[in-house]
Amino acid sequence: MSQGGAAARDAAKPQDRGWAWMVLLAAVLLQGLTLGFPSCIGVFFTDLQREFQASNSETSWFPSIMVAVLHGGGPLCSILVKRFGCRFAVMLGGLLSGVGMVSSSFCKSISQLYLTAGLITGLGSCFSFQAGVTALGYYFVRWQTLANAMASTGVSLGFTLWPLLSQYLLDEMGWRNTFLIFGGILLNSCVCGAIMRPIQLASRSPLQSPKHAEEPGRRAEEAQLSNGASSPHPELQQQTRRTACFQMLQKYLAFDIFCQNKGYQIYTIGVTWMMMGFALPHVYLVPYAIQNGVEERKAALLISVIGFINIFIRPFTGLLSGHRVFTGRRIYLFSLAVLLCGLSNFICVISAEFSVLIIYCVILSIAMSGIGALTFQVLMDVVEMDRFSSALGLFTILESITLLIGPPLTEIQGHVVLNPPTATNVWGKTGKIRCKLQPITIYHRKTEVS
Fold first, then answer.
1. Distance separating alpha carbons of residues 46 and 180, to the nearest angstrom
2. C-beta of residue 403 within 8 angstroms of C-beta of residue 359
């Protein structure tokens, strides 16, 4: 038996077994601390308005910036993962998240809150979340679909616990002390990052990439310039710099995949279009319920209902989509979930009573479970794993654009909180989602034909 074959088997041992399940547990906690965290911002919406005398539009920029940066910092996270590994990126993200929330407790204006809780905390959450997803993709191969679905239950736990904890701390201590406590809680992302130790596969280490050797010609040119000699071909040197810049963008932003892989291109554009309205219920559902006479504690419970149902539906979705019947057809399950998510908003048109809103949350949570469990799995099906971190970076930065403009654009369209938001909310979700269904179907048909 060859030594190379034995070494390959030994290198593959960490996958789908042993420590991989500890990494999965860390990924569950990470997604609850990162993606689940913005769900509680709606609880503070009214208090922040009163504190800073801010309008609805000004206040809505706070969660918009946080969610946009959370998704838009993907290229920076990709660079960190490739140079330092997933463990470093996750722990740095936890540190930034904690510092951002602690700093936000001392803010004296809404614009300062944009910088601290919006930018710094959002960027830290981005590093922790995306590096955690990348690490999970390397630790699981056979059970990758189930692992992604199980990890996404962390978001459900976050949706369930963050609003309840926020309402309790807000009533007892006020929003400033609550943000201070949140800073300490978010530092636990560093502990999760410490669990994600690098693994060595047969060919290379995916979690801590080796330093690639530089091109001999480029190294010789740099040595010549460092000795004081001028470049004999200035035009060639300028062209080389442009090529190096393009190669860097291609490496970390996956523009080459976006241009060449039609499946990735259409899927990315479709999800980006959908995200313009996807986050609106988490931002406006609580203040909308309060404006229509629902008690504050009951209003905060609505988001928790969404999260609680997600806890059970997401693993089931992962098991279902992992069945061999759905191999190559997961996109259809994803499309069905997106359609249901958009249509569920019509329930808000019926009534703003608490019982009706509970029904709305139940249906919405079922749809969101399918979207949350399958979004990254479909992306892994479209893109090869060795380019996944770069593809995820471009994927999320495009998402961040529509996530950023979604809530403020909604305010411009219909003054969501002060007036019934249903028409605008339906526009923000169903209109975008209907447009998304067609590209997804086209993508799948193209892959089948090819």
1. 19
2. no
pTM of the entire predicted model:
0.67
**Buried/exposed code over 325-361 (b: 16+ C-beta within 10 A; e: otherwise):** eeeeebbebbbebbbbbbbbbebbeeebebeebeebb
Distance CA 379, CA 331 (A): 10
Measure the CA–CA gap between 231 and 244, rounded to whole angstroms.
Answer: 17
b/e sequence 67-104, b meaning 16+ C-beta within 10 Å: bbbbbbbbbbbbbbbbebbbbbbbbbbbbbbbbbbbbb
Assign 3-state DSSP to the chain and report helix, strand, coil percentages, each to 5: 85, 0, 15
What is the token pair recorded at 282? 């988490």
Q: From the first residue on, what is the mean pLDDT of each consecutive set of 10 residues in the chain (450 residues)?
A: 45 67 90 87 84 82 84 81 89 94 92 92 92 85 78 82 88 92 94 84 45 42 41 59 66 73 85 80 79 82 82 79 75 86 81 87 87 82 77 79 74 50 41 42 43
